Amino acid sequence: MSYAAYKLMHAPTGIDNCASGFITHSPADFAPRILSVQTTEDIDSVWPTTPAPGVGPIPNLIVTAANVLEVYTVRVSENDATSNNKDSVQPQRGGLMAGLSGASLELVCSYRLHGNVESVGVLSSGAEDRTSGRRRDSIILTFRDAKISILEFDDSVYGLRTRSMHCFEGPQWLHLKKGRESFARGPFIKADPLGRCAGVLVYGLQMIMLKAAEAGGLVGDDGGSSGGGSVSARIQSSYMISLRDLDVKHVKDFIFVHGYIEPVLVILHEKELTWAGRLPYKHHSCVISALSISTSLKQHPLIWSAINLPHDAYKLLAVPSPIGGVLVICANTIHYHSQSASCILALNNYAVPMDSSQEMSRSSFSVELDAANATWLSNDVAMLSTKSGELLLLTLVHDGRIVQKLDLSKSKASVLTSGITTIGSSFFFLGSRLGDSLLVQFHCGAGSSMGAKEEVGDIEGDLPSTKRLRRSSSDALQDMANDDEISLYGSELNNAQSSQKTFSFTVRDSLINVGPLKDFSYGLRMNTDQNATGVAKQSNYELVCCSGHGKNGSLCVLQRSIRPEIITQESIPGCKGLWTVYHKSSRNQAEHSKTATEDEEYHAYLIISLESRTMVLQTVSNLEEVTENVDYFVQGSTIYVGNLFGRRRVIQVYSRGARILDGAFMTQDLTFRATNSEAALTVSSVSIADPYVLLMMTDGSIQLLVGDPSSCTMSINNLAAFQTTNRTISACTLYHDRGTEPWLRKTSTDAWLLTGVSEPVEGPDGTPPDQGDIYCVICYENGTLEIYDVPNFCCVFSVESFVSGRPFIGDNLFQESSNESQKYQNMKVVELAMHRWHGENSRPFLFGILTDGTILCYHAYMYEGSETASKSQPVNGQSSSSPGTSRLKNLRFSRVSLDTYTREDMSTETHFPRITMFKNIGGCPGFFLSGSRSAWFMKFRERIRIHPQLCDGPIIAFTVLHNMYCNHGFIYVTSQGTLKICQLPSLLSYDNHWPVQKIPLKATPHQVTYFAEKNLYPLIVSVPVSKPITQVLSTLVDQESGHQIEHDTSNLDGTYIIEEFEVRILEPESSGGPWQTKGTIHMQTSENALTVRVVTLTNTTTREKETLLAIGTAYVQGEDVAARGRALLFSVESSTENSQAKVTEVYSKEMKGAISALASIQGYLLVASGPKVILHKWTGSELNGVAFFDAPPLYVVSLNIVKNFILIGDVHKSIYFLSWKENGSQLTLLAKDFGSLDCFATEFLIDGSTLSLMVSDDQKNVQIFYYAPKVSESWKGQKLLSRAEFHVGAHVTKFLRLQMLPASSTGPAASVKTNRFALVFGTLDGSIGCIAPLDELTFRRLQSLQKKLVDAVPHVAGLNPRSFRQFHSNGKAHRPGPDSIVDCELLCYYDMLPFENQHEIANQIGTTRAQIISNLNDLALGTSFL
To answer: Above 60 in pLDDT, residue 770?
Structure first.
């Protein structure tokens, strides 16, 4: 393995930073809604359901997870009965509060950056009241070591664009580091609340001031480009303040405060450092200093300061206007300081005043506040989230602007947060790295009677039971009852102030997080298929991951590919297509529509098209064949079947005609004839949008069948407009823009004329008024895409060279056309689909499949350009011949990356339609892509999630089925001719990069392993238990020497929380329910289980192999007691009749040192105990040492074994490579890495006959070493040589070695090595990736492509992918190793480039586009694990 590729398979999900701001819209965009409420104030009491007056403008939510940046919009649904039926797929969560029935997060844009975001700030647009104002906010991101990027939302591309970049690193800024190399934290940003400036602290002591541009200034010239006149806040210039000159050292936090004319910066810093051991001599060492910042004069005078703050102060909170001032949060106290007043609140017994003169009020309960996060719910109530996940409300009791005292009250428990932000006036977001992040709505009431409902349920994100209830709308009421207990109330204070505010909360939405992945194991799924081979076999496996911490601890079961739950299967050879249709008979239509929504209606017939005949089956309950009794055309194969006229009729299209049926009876028969000759034409593809049917013939012409809803009959329209043109059509589809306000209508030139008039105009012929508009999307052979309105067939939108896959497309009338469309004679669109799924704000998607298997996916958005008006005049003169149509000139499409989908090799044989849209399968909307690499494309939050389905090989036909026995399921036919009726596994959440099932443990999981013989998962968990301090101290005594340690016994009346460890043996539930604990092994007091492994040992007395469970532990008893540990062996007998497995201890042995790693090697047990590695043999009753290795590992983090080779990773001393020789019974050190490295995980990488050693470290790098005793640099083989190094950007905690799958390519390169393995790894950010070996030719090609892409692609936030992937040594001396890993994160941009650019880059590096695509495809196929 000389060369490798790094590939991210599951993006990070643990949220590090969150912020809120008006990014995609300005506050004024909400004004009309608020004004309409204010006019009805006098009758407000009569109408309690007016659109919530408390909501007001809602800003966007910005979250970052490692290197992922996402912007969300909060979509609010008001409480009115009509919206409920429309969205019945997913009923709202959380019941009714403050006039809102629900709220959800909708994705605006998501980016994977080339750098980890250190902190996020929002530069506000400066509106004081934040309810009006036309300007938008900007996002400020900071990256290590000192990079700052300012991003703003650009309407024309519906995404973020970099506005300015500020970099303070590199040779000319070296003096800023003052000689230091490593810094505890990266740059972090705070912005002035009025948006006048922002401050970034870099290198610990340098404050960079970013000065914002004045609202009126130069920005006006640029303002036209962002359309609609709403300009984002911008940074004009930056300068630096050296804090050392101000005698400020050891900065802990800083913040801008409210209520001053100039920006005022308050810095919390420590004069002289102290620590817990020196507190009797030096305490209260922190200081806050307030500087008035004048950005124009670059002066910063000190205006006030406060001294003698506790040494453990760590956070500042700026109190909002009109009170002003700052809160200092310490571990045991909270201080309020302003220029005129100060007060202190003590939180527990450890709070000591500086001297006797300070008076401290104490809170009514005891709490520790270290590592808390906080945000403001109103201008005098702050919410704190503690390290144990409790929410506390801190009220400032004030008189005018003078704060008299602080009051703290307990609220509810929730997730352990990494950040909180308030979104508008009625939502807050709890961002979490350790659990799911939550969007919570809060409502402030003034009554105090609510205070009694204190002990109602907590705000927890993972509600697995209620989550399942959201499947069907009939359970919606039940679900509200369940979720309603969550609404909670802040407790009432015991003083006489009954005006104390009470808050009620309800969870509205949650974002799934699978991180931090501490460990995972690779096991079989429950419904495995024993006969599967190749890629399909991967669907038998799943990853079981330890994730989360404390009460957010859970097991995450991740499955990359979907394996459906099969209800029945049947063999049907020669199947070509499947369709299910509804049948509403007109008699019972009235009462039918009342009882069930459209969504719950059962299918009536299933039509199966075979090669020479058609079968019809009845589907309401069981499937029964009724082919003989119906008037369907059954003598030949069918092209398409679908419903018309509001499900009252069915149309069946076959190659030479069509039939209209009412249930089983035919009402009309049509045959298709060509206009010029008498020969009958044959149909090749069909698209239906009620009441129109679009047919595409084999000769490339199209015909439209027009329905008359009153008589339910069809007539043929030959579309004379298309008969004359010589352009051949390659694909076409109809698009139905549903709803009372069709989405595309808003984008037309005269949208303002159409709004409000459209409803009454539409329905004279009996159609309901909300039918919406119908459009026809056509793609020609030359690559042009045009949209026509139906039935007039006037062109309303056209794009040249659609096939080239440009990142943005708009109406070509107003764009200079590129004359390069001749290049792609071979590239054409073979299938088109355009669809808009349900949802008030959903926007249409456009999909095109090209001849080479590329799928283009576009998402529509609206952009009103101001500069287009001048160009449009002459063009409009020509096209206005057809009155009544207006161009959709504000319609734009942006391309969506589908980099997780592996394209298939398209064959030249006849193409069959591959896209099947569905509205609700198992509660999810989306479409299914059939073919040789079939996949599910599901739409959540306006984002497409792609989940492959590999378990059946190629899939020929697919359709939806909903009946009594198959609730919202589906049917598909495999290429082997098997018809399967299935449902989606209901326990998985699909709104994640991979489908995931979370199993809450309510404890911290540490390590998991898979017991393959018994299909069990032994798992180390630790549960926090609170014990009396006296009992804890008595365990810190060395029992052997018997020394009693003298302790000051004055304040030992408290409790102390210690973690108690146990090993749980879990069994996956076959029915898919919650996992069952089959047995528990408890550790002794103060004994920590460190490792659990399933080992195979050779019993030396009986010569038989035994499979045992081995556990390594350590006693943690403080630094006065010598470290000891135990090695435990257990046998596990799984008994089927009772629920518990029989776990018996076979052997236990106490050793010196902590036993941190175990492994079995050729029947022996290798134990790493402290600084020794000892090999034991197993006699059946005890372990006896055979050999040992005494090199200086301090503490072994990981052990890996291949054959007789051993790889040891040490906590500080890098890696050791040993071998074991049985004949001389000795462990020999072959080589080691002489550098110092703090290892996280190690593993062997096998590529053919080459063995390499992989290690990940605490600086988020991975390195590959190899053993080469013949090379002179290796000092006669003592030293391991570096083969590659790479910066992953996340802490890799576990590697898993999996055999690569055979790539499909046939050719000279088909002689691929068979035992080539890739390493799948998990990280603490919740990302999963793999490192896969490459052969040299592919590597050189991809590496030169990568170098080109660094410059060819505009990178978000201006980050450089090359510097991000450099080895980070954190100031230690490091010799750079070879650069032999390519970065697929950068290579995946290649597919998103327009084709002309792809060809150009391929030419520059001397290869072809097809060659590059095939290399990337082979890599994706070879690593399509799980």
So the answer is: no
- Whether residue 1331 contacts residue 1263, with contact meaning beta carbons closer than 8 Å, is answered with no
- Mean pLDDT over 132-143 rounds to 86
| DSSP label at residue 496 | S
Please give the model's pTM, rounded to 2 decimal places. Answer: 0.90
pLDDT digits (tens, 9 = 90+) for 236-252: 889 999 998 898 989 99
From edge to edge, which strands make up the β-sheet containing 565-571? 565-571, 978-983, 969-974, 955-961
Residue with tokens 């009103």: 864
Tell me the one-letter amino acid at 1018: P
| Sign of the alpha-carbon torsion through 961, 963, 966, 969 | positive
Closest to 1092 measured CA to CA, from 999, 1159, 1002: 1159
pLDDT score at 215: 62
pLDDT at residue 221 tops 50: no
Residue 1185's alpha-carbon distances to 397, 1114, 1175, 1225, 1354, in angstroms, are 69, 19, 6, 11, 60
Closest CA to 404 of 351, 492, 355, 345: 345
1047-1055: Cβ within 8 A, 24+ apart: 1051/349, 1053/1029, 1054/349, 1054/1028, 1054/1029, 1055/1026, 1055/1027, 1055/1028, 1055/1029
Q: Kindly tell me the burial class for residue 80, based on how many C-beta atoms sit within 10 Å of its own C-beta (0-12, 13-18, 19 or more).
A: exposed
CA distance linking residue 1365 with residue 1290, whole number of Å:
12
Q: Which residues make beta-bridge pairs with 1124?
A: 1152
Cβ(142)–Cβ(115) below 8 Å: no
Cα 18 from Cα 61, distance rounded (Å): 7
Per-residue pLDDT tens for 570-615? 898 888 889 999 887 654 444 444 444 666 788 989 999 998 889 9
Tell me the one-letter amino acid at 23.
I
> How far out from the chain centre does Cα 753 lie?
41
Torsion angle of C-alpha atoms 751, 752, 754, 757, degrees rounded to 10: 160
Q: Strand ranges (DSSP E) for 272-401? A: 286-292, 302-309, 315-318, 326-329, 333-337, 342-346, 361-362, 373-378, 381-385, 390-399
Distance between start and end Cα atoms, the chain: 23
- 385 close to 391: Cβ distance less than 8 angstroms: yes
CA nearest neighbour of 1095 among 1067, 1143, 1131: 1131
CA neighbor of 886 nearest in space, from 1015, 1006, 753:
753
Residue identified by tokens 């939806």 is 960
**Alpha helices by DSSP H, 775-926:** 868-879
- The dihedral built from the CA positions of residue 48, 51, 56 and 62, taken in this order, carries a sign that is positive
829: CB partners within 8 A, 6+ apart: 730, 731, 779, 783, 785, 802, 803, 848, 849, 850
**Segment among 252-266, 355-369, 745-759, 1215-1229 with least mean pLDDT:** 745-759
- Beta strands 808-810; 891-895: pairing state: antiparallel
More reliable by pLDDT, 754 or 266? 266
- How far apart, in whole angstroms, are the C-alpha atoms of residue 458 and residue 462? 11
Nearest to 1066 by CA among 1112, 1124, 1010: 1010
Evaluated on CA atoms 1050, 1055, 1058, 1062, the torsion sign reads positive
Per the listing, tokens 């979250």 go with 63
Q: What's the pLDDT tens digit per position in 1269-1305?
A: 999 888 888 999 999 999 999 999 999 999 988 876 4
Range of lowest pLDDT (534-538, 1014-1018, 1025-1029, 1269-1273): 534-538
Residue 521 CA to residue 350 CA, distance in Å, equals 43
- pLDDT value of residue 1154: 92
Which residues are within 8 A (CB) of 151 and not within 5 positions of it... i.e. 6 or more apart?
138, 139, 140, 141, 160, 161, 162, 163, 1356, 1357
pLDDT at 1263 over 90: yes
Strands 361-362 and 373-378 come out as unpaired
